[in-house]
């Protein structure tokens, strides 16, 4: 599948998700009643309810970590959230940067931008804004942000080299990123990797962990740190939608794993 086709699938799928509740997203695969089977998003997402700045209206249950917990965000920082969705991580980041800071959310789905702006209007924040744009070609100036965060989004980007290159470009010298994302250890079975519905919301957009970290290094970042990782347990009845009984056994016992990781790195000044 071509990169543009994959982007179209992601855009359409997350356009649907934007107009659904977190409860609905938790009870149906990839946020819709599609043929990819029923996946409870709670196997990916962490509980935000204790986070300062948390807004339930902005939480669609789509994350795979809480990157703001490890992002070393300070008062007065300018923070960029990639794939900001309905604004969940932006509003948590806003509580950290305070009145003197600024938070920008970037998303390429119209419905998500609309929902995020609606949530922001209700909150009345003047230092949070949402910009429509592609992570591979950010419509943002060079050397602008102190910190970049992202939550379970970069695995959906076809060209991850471009994504991290753009992150380098828009970060200030000495700035850093902290992202939560999905990666793979071992070989993901072909039916899972190729299925477009799984790609659009679950795990098949992920690449191997070593490859992921190598891209970060090759794009010039240093001080790479993995703060948290957890294996994502895909239930056997979900795997049965894609794999034979023998393939499920091999997947579960062959050293292959799907993990969420929270990783940070620095653009040296």
Describe the protein:
With 269 residues, the protein is of the alpha/beta class. It has a single domain, classed as Vaccinia Virus protein VP39 (Rossmann fold), CATH 3.40.50.150. The protein has helices spanning 3-18, 22-27, 88-97, 110-123, 160-170, 190-194, 196-201, 209-218, 236-239, 245-253; strands spanning 78-82, 102-107, 128-132, 145-151, 171-185, 222-231, 257-266. Helix 1 (3-18) packs parallel to helix 4 (110-123). The longest helix has 16 residues, at 3-18. It starts with a helix and ends with a strand. The relative contact order is 0.16. Mean pLDDT is 87; it is low at 27-39.
In short:
This protein is of the alpha/beta class and 269 residues long.
Map the helices and strands.
Elements: H1 3-18, H2 22-27, E1 78-82, H3 88-97, E2 102-107, H4 110-123, E3 128-132, E4 145-151, H5 160-170, E5 171-185, H6 190-194, H7 196-201, H8 209-218, E6 222-231, H9 236-239, H10 245-253, E7 257-266
Helix pairs in contact: 1-4
List the main descriptive attributes of the protein structure presented here.
269 residues; Rossmann fold; 10 helices; alpha/beta; 7-stranded mixed beta sheet; single chain
């Amino acid at each position: 599948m071509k990169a543009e086709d994959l982007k179209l699938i992601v855009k359409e799928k997350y356009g649907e998700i934007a107009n659904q509740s977190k409860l609905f997203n938790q009870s149906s695969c990839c946020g819709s009643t599609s043929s990819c089977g029923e996946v409870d998003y709670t196997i990916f997402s962490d509980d935000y309810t204790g986070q300062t700045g948390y807004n339930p209206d902005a939480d669609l249950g789509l994350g795979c970590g809480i990157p703001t917990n490890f992002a070393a965000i300070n008062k007065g920082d300018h923070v960029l959230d990639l794939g900001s969705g309905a604004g969940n991580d932006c509003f948590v980041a806003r509580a950290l940067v305070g009145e003197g800071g600024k938070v920008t959310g970037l998303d390429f789905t119209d419905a998500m931008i609309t929902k995020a702006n609606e949530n922001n209007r209700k909150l009345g924040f003047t230092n949070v804004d949402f910009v429509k744009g592609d992570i591979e070609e950010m419509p943002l100036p060079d050397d602008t942000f102190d910190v970049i965060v992202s939550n379970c989004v970069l695995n959906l980007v076809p060209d991850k080299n471009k994504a991290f290159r753009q992150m380098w470009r828009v970060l200030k010298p000495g700035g850093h990123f902290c992202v939560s994302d999905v990666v793979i250890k071992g070989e993901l079975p072909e039916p899972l990797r190729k299925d477009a519905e799984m790609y659009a919301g679950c795990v098949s957009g992920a690449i191997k962990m070593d490859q992921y970290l190598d891209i970060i290094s090759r794009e010039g970042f240093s001080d790479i740190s993995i703060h948290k990782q957890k294996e994502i347990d895909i239930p056997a009845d979900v795997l049965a939608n894609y794999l034979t009984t023998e393939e499920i056994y091999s997947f579960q016992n062959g050293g292959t794993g799907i993990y969420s990781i929270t990783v940070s790195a620095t653009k040296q000044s």
